[in-house]
Design goal:
The protein is an alpha+beta fold. It folds into 2 domains: 1-34, no CATH class; 39-137, Lipocalin (Beta Barrel). Helix content is 23%, strand content 29%. The protein has 3 helices and 10 strands; from the N terminus they run ββββββααββββα. The protein has a 6-stranded antiparallel beta sheet with strand order 6-5-10-9-8-7, with helices on one face. The protein has a two-stranded antiparallel ribbon with strand order 1-2. Strands 3-4 form a two-stranded antiparallel ribbon.
Length: 138
């Protein structure tokens, strides 16, 4: 079974979203395979709001301004060396267990539930909250 963007598990999508072309039924572009790259990300905003999100690669690309090539560094299947990659709108971090994207307004982390990463996540949340409190006092 495959997950399609029309929201149903099918093996190929049999729904008719299109019309007729040369006597054959066509499928519209809304019924295409969804990338299996949906993963759980920990999202921390500059305001200190933290949440868990199941997000695909395309959404991360749109929100961070990164290319697919830059996000490939975070792929767990591919073996990339330890790297901190600076781009115009974001920084991509791949340091053993800590994998994520940092922008001016957000931090997106993979594997945040990993016991090796959890102390870093808690420290990051604490730093963001205290910096917000310091800014509010000024």
């Amino acid at each position: 079974m495959e997950l399609t963007s029309c929201g149903q598990e099918q093996s190929p999508c049999s729904q008719n979203h299109g019309g007729k072309e040369n006597g054959r039924t066509t499928k519209s572009k809304s019924c295409k395979k969804v990338d299996g790259g949906i993963r759980t990300w920990f999202h921390l905003t500059d305001a200190g709001h933290a949440r868990w999100m199941d997000v695909g690669r395309q959404a991360i690309k749109r929100w961070t301004g990164l290319s697919a090539r830059d996000l490939r560094i975070l792929d767990p299947i591919l073996a990339y060396p330890l790297v901190i990659l600076g781009r115009r709108r974001a920084v991509v971090v791949n340091l053993e267990h800590i994998k994520g994207v940092i922008t001016a307004k957000d931090v997106w982390l993979l594997n945040a539930k990993d016991p090796a990463v959890a102390p870093f996540v808690e420290s990051l949340k604490h730093l963001v909250m205290t910096s917000n409190q310091d800014v509010a006092k000024v």
